[in-house]
Design goal:
This protein is of the alpha/beta class. It is built from 18 helices and 16 strands. The protein has three domains: 102 residues; 158 residues, Alpha-Beta Plaits (2-Layer Sandwich); 245 residues, Alpha-Beta Barrel (TIM Barrel). The structure holds ligand C2E and magnesium ion (2 copies). One magnesium ion binds next to loops.
């Protein structure tokens, strides 16, 4: 219904209601007058009629008899109108009640909706002000709802939500109110005994267990899980500030829930004040990343890759750096996971790859370029096409490019990853398995993708420098590589002793601080110039070279 037609019908309703109310007043007036008249005339006329009937008197005047009959008719009419009116009032009250319920509850689950949950929480806070209790809010969010919806469809998704709501309500203690605040977000507000806050821990655990129990839907078994955040009033709240207090409880429980998710989901966390500043910091990073991509704040740095036996430079690994005006030079270990979370990793990576391909054209053509690719990018079936377009645009030969992917790619959507990787390989691009040994890839998974190289994670290699460390894991990985016919690169070679041990294990490539920290484009060019490793066309007078980007210091 359009807004204008809605307002039109509302005013028609109003007019109808006013008209009927006017009629009610007139009818009531007439009935009252009839009643008074009846009392006035009936008292004398009725005995006359009765006497006339019995034949002991003469009948009253016809006019008065008729007036009495009219009186009686009017009283009956008034009575009928009165009963109708009582019925109408009852129905109207019912309609108002169901309209109120519709406005306050969530249509799917029957729980309170977001709009009414805050007032309900404020009422509870007001109530506990008069007792010795405290108020607590548990924020509950399904961990895998999007996946359930995507895989099983919205109908099953709805059933999972209703069942989750039912399970939450079943565990809600006396005096609690449950709400559905959004898609898969639920909340409980409840009074608790301030001497036993651990009851809230028990409640959170029971809720997590209950929601995590399998749900049988349409012949399928669905497994959902939930993360919870808990916030509670520590001191007795002031009744006048009940609404602010309830608002703060909801906000804090939400922050705690977010932390529970970050800690690995299917668990709960209590709100702590430090979480709020962490969240603010994270928010600043997110905004900074989004704004920094188009401003060119993300720049490639390059780490040398060496043939260990000859000591010769064979290529570089591109490592991203964020040159943030607010935070300084930021490590990829901080911004890459955030860029993945907020969905900008593909855009960021494309930006960096473009710069790196341009930079690498100034290197000697026998030097390779390795780039790190996030598992999220490999889930995109168009990734290989996008990368090939970048190669074509920059005129960089595919055989010089090496893609580094981590073991986590092997766990999800192996089908899509395999087709992307195969398509890249068909173009001549090399594929390396990065950080090998830190994940949980099985041998079967290792064979499921056509890798060209294994990179031993730096944690195993740097460990070799420590007194009494044993080289067994590194040896095992090297022999595994040999078994699979995969060449090996050792990351994290920090000193000559580690280099000596690694060299003793065979023909390997390596990289690490022993050879230098990752450097920016300008410093990399200086290094290459000193080793006579610039591309032939780059060995031109400086004024003929493309402009260098602003100089940034080398970073570890
Ligand atoms: P990675 O691919 O394993 O990169 C090697 C990391 O080890 C780099 O850290 C490098 O600076 C550090 N490193 C090198 N030599 C040594 C050494 O001798 N000792 C120690 N302790 N560390 C050494 P960085 O640059 O902080 O990068 C961290 C990770 O961030 C990278 O690990 C990679 O997984 C990721 N990353 C970097 N750039 C990108 C990117 O453009 N895209 C994606 N998706 N990930 C990236
Ligand atoms: Mg790497
Ligand atoms: Mg690595």
């Amino acid at each position: 219904m359009s807004l204008s037609s809605a307002s039109h019908s509302t005013s028609a309703n109003d007019r109808g209601r006013i008209g009927s109310a006017e009629r009610d007043i007139v009818a009531l007036g007439v009935a009252m007058a009839a009643l008074i008249l009846f009392v006035g005339t009936g008292g004398t006329v009725l005995p006359q009629i009765v006497r006339a009937w019995l034949g002991i008197g003469h009948s009253p005047d016809t006019l008065i008899t008729n007036a009495l009959l009219l009186n009686i008719a009017l009283i009956i009419f008034g009575w009928r109108r009165y009963t109708e009116l009582t019925k109408e009032v009852g129905e109207r009250r019912k309609a108002e009640e169901s309209a109120r319920q519709l406005a306050e509850t969530d249509a799917l689950t029957g729980l309170l909706n977001r709009r009414s949950f805050l007032p309900a929480s404020a009422r509870l806070v007001t109530d506990v002000c008069e007792t010795n209790q405290g108020a607590a809010v548990l924020m509950l969010d399904l961990d895998n709802f999007k996946q359930i919806n995507d895989v099983h469809g919205h109908k099953v998704g709805d059933l999972v939500l209703t069942e989750t709501a039912r399970r939450i309500e079943a565990l809600a203690p006396a005096g609690a109110s449950a709400g559905r605040l959004g898609g898969d977000e639920f909340a409980l507000v409840l009074p608790y005994d301030r001497r036993t806050p651990d009851k809230l821990d028990q409640l959170a655990t029971s809720l997590i267990d209950a929601v995590g129990a399998p749900i049988a839907v349409e012949g399928k078994t669905i497994q959902a899980s939930i993360s919870a955040g808990i916030a509670r009033t520590i001191e007795s709240p002031v009744a006048e500030q009940a609404e602010e207090c309830a608002q703060a409880l909801l906000h804090h429980a939400d922050i705690a829930m977010y932390h529970a998710k970050k800690r690995g989901r299917n668990g709960y966390a209590w709100f702590e004040p430090t979480m709020e500043s962490e969240l603010r910091f994270r928010h600043e990073l997110e905004t900074g990343i989004r704004a920094g991509i188009p401003k060119g704040e993300f720049v490639p740095f390059y780490e040398q890759q060496i043939d260990l036996a000859s000591g010769e430079l064979v290529g570089f690994e591109m490592l991203a750096r964020w040159n943030s005006p607010q935070f300084g030079l930021v490590s990829p270990e901080i911004f890459i996971p955030i860029a993945e979370d907020i969905g900008v990793i593909a855009e960021l990576s494309e930006f960096l790859i473009k710069q790196a391909l341009e930079d690498a054209k100034q290197w000697n053509p026998r030097l390779s370029l390795s780039i790190n690719i996030s598992p999220i990018q490999l889930r995109d079936p168009w990734f290989s096409q996008k990368l090939l377009r970048l190669l074509v645009e920059s005129g960089f030969p595919p055989h010089r490019l090496d893609i580094e992917i981590t073991e986590s790619c092997l766990h999800e959507n192996v089908g899509v990853v395999r087709s992307v990787v195969t398509s890249l390989k068909n173009q001549g691009i090399q594929i390396s398995l990065d950080d090998f040994g830190t994940g949980y890839s099985s041998l079967a998974q290792l064979r499921s993708l056509p890798f060209d190289r294994l990179k031993i994670d730096r944690s195993f290699v740097t460990e070799l420098a420590h007194e009494g460390s044993n080289a067994k894991i590194v040896e095992a990985i090297v022999s595994l590589g040999r078994g699979f016919d995969l060449p090996i690169t050792a990351e994290g070679i920090e000193n000559a002793e580690v280099l000596r041990i690694m060299k003793s294990m065979g023909q390997l490539k390596g990289q690490g601080y022993l050879y230098g920290r990752p450097e920016n484009h300008a410093m990399t060019l200086d290094r290459l110039a000193a080793q006579n490793l610039l591309a032939p066309e780059s060995e031109l007078p400086a004024e003929d070279l493309p402009p260098r980007r602003p100089d940034l210091r080398a970073a570890g």
